[in-house]
Amino acid sequence: MDSLPNESVFQSSVDYNPILRYYLTMKTTIDIPEEELKKAIKYTGAKTKREAVVSAIIDFNRRQKLAELAKILGTFKNFMTRHDLKKVREDENGD
User: What's the pLDDT at 4?
Assistant: First the structure.
């Protein structure tokens, strides 16, 4: 089975193919505070406002999925400390 193209190829196809754009995107008008949008462009490294907004939405959705996963799986109360990890690595390397 063929895998889906990577996101950048897919996004380019959506941007430049009006048929794909019609079926796979939602055009909307929103009022975004200019300073917040400038920060989003700066922090995401986006070249366009659209790219910054899409990047922020993708990141937000990813974080929400991780939060849901943490609720389901829980967290580690007795996870190893940095000191424990350093000791394990030293033992593995024979230091």
Answer: 44
